[in-house]
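Morning, I've got a small favour to ask if you have a moment. I've been staring at a protein lately and its backbone has me curious. You're getting the sequence in one-letter code plus the fold written as tokens. I've dropped the whole record in just underneath, so have a look:
=====
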Amino acid sequence: MSQVRHVLGISGGKDSAALAIYMKTKYPNLALEYYTCDTGKELDETYLLIERLEGFLGQKIMQLRAVEKSHEDPFDHFLARKGGYLPSSLIRWCTRSLKLEPFEQFVGNDSVISYVGIRGDEDREGYISTKPNIQSIFPFRQNIWSEDVVGKVLANGNMENMLDLCSNTILENVSARFLELLGQPISLEFQRPQKLRSLLSLNAKDFNRLVFAWLKSTQYPLALESVFPLVENDENLGINDIFRLLKESGVGVPAYYNKVSFEVKGYKGEYARSRSGCYFCFFQQRIEWVWLYEQHPDMFFKAMEYEKDGYTWGQNESLAELIQPERIEQIKLEYLQKNTSGNRLSPYLLDRIIEEEEVGCAACFV
């Protein structure tokens, strides 16, 4: 029996769902535990996605709740403890209290590999636990390793050690160029991201084998594993791959990603939700708040009820202000201006509309 637990969190969004499908399909012998952190404020489509995933995976997705014995939903429980202070990008207490802490309680002090669904076309690491017994792996990226691991592996002080490992690790006819890159110190002219990209583009699998060999001398959870199948992974999956995995599996794309048509001032556009999570997530764009108001008005008005005592979901604008007809129109026009390409619509849409309105008004006085 492995001493290490392998876990994968389902957020309800496309990326984590696709990752679960990907791992089940490509690594069926890996004993993965699936979990989801329920805030009590998810869209119905999120719960439907989890049900479909359970059918595909053939196993239960464990539901974690931050407060099991409270009579309130987890979010409402912590909101009361925060004195009604709504979370924001500056103070993300919801992520810590409703997601990370339940997850860390779930794994306890066990050695854990946590699989994270950040895509190869994204340049971010995400909000990830820093507990030493939890190691994050990114299967969708050509670089499956976390920033802390890469930083230590490619540190100039570790360079000789990595070169020595090359002679003691089973590699695929490692090239002279690979050894040359590995032995080139990081400098202002050759920074760590460039060195990493160069090594991965030359031979990602050999780089992974070297990192796994180096991990054996550390306290990371993977030091306890004799083999790790993902070292043979050199794929780099983007957004189109994610949608393909969801569709081909039969699980399907969460309904809130389906684009809905709208029209404003004679111009046509489409909107949808860009992320999973609570229906009142403060990370939503204003156009997504408009989407919520028009597609799920009941949930929008529930979100409005949380705005009190000067606390609002958006900066300098309440939801009551946001849904004024003229404001909705402005938000849609700005969204169209930002997201329309080609000759169908001028990049100066707002200027054109204002000009047309001024011409129309002037014509009234001719």
User: Anything to note?
Assistant: The mean pLDDT is 88. The beta strands are 4-9, 32-37, 62-64, 111-115, 134-137, 260-264, 267-271.
